[in-house]
Amino acid sequence: MSNTTDENIKTDLSVSQFKVAEPHHLSKKAAWLRKYYFKGYDREWNNEYAPFTTGIPNDRIWSEGDYYIVPEVYGFIGINGKGLYCLSLDLMAEKVDLPSGFWELSLPERRMTFFREVMLNYVPQEIISSNDLLAGGRFNIQLSKCFTEAQLKAHEKQNIKNRHRILHFHQEGFGNVGATGGHLIPDYKTVIERGFRYLYEKAKKSYDNLTEKEKKGPKGAELRAMITACQIPRDLAAKYADECLRLKDLTDSAERREELQKMADNLRKVPWEPAQTFWEALQSLWLTHMLVMAEESYPGPGTSFGRLDQYLWPFYKRDVIEKRNISRDFAKDLFSSFIFHANTAYDAQIRIGKQGISAGFGQLMTLSGMGPNGEDLTNELTYMILEVFDEWAPILEPKPNIRLHRNSPEKLLDVIVDMITRAQGAPFILNFDERSMAGMILEGVPPEDAWDYACVGCLENTMCGNDRSGTVNCNPNLAKSIELTLWNGKNQPGFKRIIGNDMFKQAKPGTQFGPKTGNPETFTSWEEFFNAWKKQMAFIIKHTVETYNVFEATRAKYYPTPYLSTIVDGCIENATDIRVGPPKYGFVTIEGVAFATTVDSLLAIKYWVYDQKKYKISEIKDALLHDFQGKREYQIMQALMKNKTPKYGNNDPESDALAKEVMQFWAEECWKYQTPTGYQFRPGMLSWNYWAGEDAAFTPATPDGRNAGTFLSNAICPSNGADKNGPTSVTNSVGIALGGKTSEDTYVNVLPNGASHTITFNPSLLRDKEHRDKFKAYIRGYVENGGTALQINILDSLMLKDAQKHPENYGNLLVRVTGYNAYFTSIGKELQDEIIARESHNW
Amino acid sequence: MITSTDPPSSDLSSIKQFSEKKAYIFEIQRLSTEDGPGIRTTVFFKKCPLKCKWCHNPESIEFQKAIQWFENKCIGCEQCIEQCSTHSLSFSETGLVINRKTCSACGDCAEICPTTALKVSGEWITLNNLINEVLKDKTYYSTSNGGVTCSGGEPTQQIEFLSKFLQECKKNGIHTALDTCGYATVDTYSKILPYVDLILYDIKEIDPQRHKEYTGVSNQKILQNLEWLAEKIRAGASFKLWIRTPIIPQFTARDENIKGIARFIHDKLGDTVERWDLLAFNNMAQAKYERLNIDWPLRTQPLMTKDEMNHFLQIAYNVGVKQVQWDGPTKI
Predict the structure, then answer these.
(1) What would the 3-class secondary structure string for A716-772 be?
(2) Which of B140, B179, B202 is the closest to A728 by Cβ?
(3) How many helices and strands in chain A, by DSSP H and E?
(4) pLDDT tens column, B113-149
């Protein structure tokens, strides 16, 4: 008595009640902190942007290059002068009294001197509440770039050039690129275990080893800046310790007095000295981390914690399990403070909208995963962290990425499925070790080290403590290759953007961008067409790299980050700032956008023009020019393209083979290039929200039947509605596109960065234990057949439509966008519609 | 449902009867979670000897292809009307009208339809292609202790193919389940029992008279077969037996029916039944009936309530059947 599925039928399954996840079982301290956090701008304390200037005329504070990868802000960066963001920071900026001799210092030394002044003497050291157990409040500062007047002049000239270059690149439909901050895992493990004193001594030793000539040059300058940098956390911690003792004197509660004394003791010790307790380790971690965000003047852009449950485990084990110095509940309270502080990154924009939260920043913590011999490393701290996070949920930061593999324990999967069942957007991303590690090995990590990778930003795989992989810096629109191929290297004549940002003029239609690969109307075979496409695709990658490299060079020259450099392994040894040259592993990731749109367009052309011979290229171009509108023939063609054409995502061997070929081709192109700073380009697929936003607006109709200006495909997912055979089929297709497995059952992954894969399930699929067990088995199947990272939405489209109508009832509704969770009611209408339009797979 | 591995449909379209070489199916459902243990691929075979008034797959009953029109997918291009050789299609104010009397169900309209707004249920698939299709999810069968379920319609109607297919599944190490209405001969079942790991066996109605009224046939043979299967298990056969009872308002959702079935299971089948599922009526077939222009007696029927389902469960339990459970949609 089975039912065949029927997507058009509404049912009122009892499990589809519109219940949104809520916090639960919070301790008194945690409940207070959570409530206080969500008071947002009504709080008496917040962590909103505070800009600081050296006081030179027209000082440069805001680094717009950090935001070139966010096309939504282009309207605020200005065209030929300073835009709204920059000017408002300039107006607000507080002048810092500069120590004597400041202007005689090198740029990195000035930066560290200024940073030190600001953090110690201008930003107040505050303990936020008697419910808070960690020090480290304000870090959303905007630091002057500390340019001399001559540097400022040269910089501003370069800046305008760069700005115009990105605006062109973007409005010509190629996507976006920019050298942004964060997106790495600093070597927090070493700071916790050995303290900044160790790094300080290492930097000094490195400096002593320089020749006298080197000491006078950039290496010497950088190391002197690093030596200053290493002491900032110590001196800041000491000030926080003073504040703890001051508060202690004002406090009656014996319990709180004891806590404040302990906090002061901790801060006298860490992060300068090695941590010895769980509390010290967390304090060391938080202060070290917030200073990274402060120095880069960009809150939490993927600045991630790495394998938190691994490097904190010895401390937790000793204090909570073996010696029982602190109770498990107290350890949970400590972690609650950590969660609270991590979320105050969003205070940066606290005046915009409810809680100042519009999207996700991505301070990731990677949990569980395998050890060097394939053994599972889940421990009691893993479960404790997940438990606290679940009690706080829905909450954004720090975002958990849970690493799964063949030996992941059943208990962990039970916890995961339980959390998914109660959430809407799963409160974590699942990362898959075997597939991910194959990518790390591909990029040159020795196979015996690859097990110790972790995630940054959203889901991007990097190594821990010694790797910067620039994981959101390049986001080319791969679907542009279809347009260029069809029009012999030109953008589509007569194309008028329908939606999108109107601040800037669109590139003139019919302009030659790519190579002249011939008018495809004259092509006689699919091979000929595909070869032309390859040339255009290769051009797009080259164009992306060349554009990006200008920004990378500017960043290297003008915006050093010596503090961050001290805590990424390799920088002290090389006496080189992380923005000037790579640490041990250095990559810039090209995150291909609109993969499925590209593949499906190629499939459509292959199928209808060369296999079925129903349409000529000229007819397809004609229909695209008219956006499939105005004539019955166009409409019929579009319907055929959409509905009766092979598509990626259906586990169909032929379509998947082409997807794999497209993947391998564009990925291979990425490896051909390096930055002027010596970073190697590598491929990945993240595509943030570009596919639903600006990239989509700039892309004319495509041969897969997609209308101009509508959503492109998301990361490695099939195009919306293209996959007809359900989640196992899509999962298999994703795994195959990434390279599948060899005949010896070895995983292949041509995208070392990893690829974002989102699947939405209907809540009824998790209705009882039997079905949850099936869901667990599906996840285990994903380990075998799927991609590197999976995010799960458990959503009922009826609920989302209700949330659009009654946002007031859904303040807590978190949904996964691509690699990050966002509050549904706070994201744009287009993105909301996109999420509703995603096929909800009904088992 | 067109699978990529299928040869063009014209190769098979001339076939007019069942054989061991090809199956006549109307759907393949991957990641199926309602038809046996674990994650499964369910193959829906066309044609059924029963005509249950509540049938959820009305397109499965007859050998003839069934054509459905999906209004929301139609772009109104009217190519189907131009294509129809029997002139059975026309547009009215309410949409596409299919004259079922003149329609020969040839499927040409669905073939030309660019949007899949016209769907034909019923297509031939070769053994090789079907095996390739079900092998795609073998990984998930392993992780979930799942496998393949043959459902319908009534799969035993195509016994020659079914037997080959099940053998082939076993050769590939795939767990097999047969979802059957029980209306076949003992000889038929004998042909496939060695290759079946699980039988999902329907007992819809215990009263033979009502059974005939509701389904078109008496339940006598169905119950006899069941006793025969139970005997096989007692004699050491390795397949498992799950009983399924659709709980249909106006029809099977009666205390005395559940009690009667429970007594039959308890007295005649006993421990040979591993599990008994009471499956709450769902209204998902309503739209299908409309599209097939069939008046469904359950058209406006509300769903069961949780209390009602628990009540039936209690009845079964009171008779002494402990391996019973219920599932399905209920009123909120």
Answers:
(1) CCCCCCCCCCCHHHHHHHHHHHCCCECCCCCECCCCCCCEEEEEEECHHHHCCHHHH
(2) B140
(3) 29, 18
(4) 999 999 998 999 999 999 999 999 999 999 999 999 9
Using the beta-carbon criterion (under 8 Å), do B32 and A635 form an inter-chain contact? Answer: no
The residue assigned the tokens 């700005």 is A163
Strands A460-463 and B22-32, by their bridges, are unpaired
Torsion-angle region of A120 (φ positive above 0: left; ψ -120 to 50: alpha; else: beta): alpha
Nearest chain B CA: its distance from A773 CA (Å): 8
- ipTM entry: 0.94
User: In whole angstroms, what is the distance from residue A651 CA to residue A674 CA?
Assistant: 35
- Cβ A526 vs Cβ A550: under 8 Å: no
Q: What residues of A are in contact with residue B79 (Cβ under 8 Å)?
A: 636
The single-letter DSSP state of residue A593 is B
Place of tokens 């929301």: B72
Burial of A150 (0-12, 13-18, 19+ CB in 10 A): exposed
Neighbours of B93 (CB within 10 A): 5
pLDDT one-digit tens code per residue, A178-196: 999 999 999 999 999 999 9
> What is the nearest CA distance from A250 to chain B, expressed in angstroms?
55
Which chain B residues contact residue A635 at CB under 8 A? 75, 77
Alpha-carbon span A480 to A463, nearest angstrom: 32
Q: At what angle do helices A278-296 and A188-208 cross, to 10 degrees?
A: 60
Rounded CA-CA distance A712/A696 in Å is 6
User: Residue A286: exposed, middle, or buried by beta-carbon count in 10 A (0-12, 13-18, 19+)?
Assistant: buried
Which among A513, A522, A502 has a CA at the least distance from the CA of A480?
A: A513
> What are the two backbone dihedrals, phi and then psi, of residue A240, each rounded to the nearest 5 degrees?
-65, -35
Chain A residue closest in CA terms to B52: A1
Q: How is residue A260 written in tokens?
A: 């404040």
Pairing mode, if any, of strands B118-121 and B66-69? antiparallel
DSSP summary character for residue B60: G
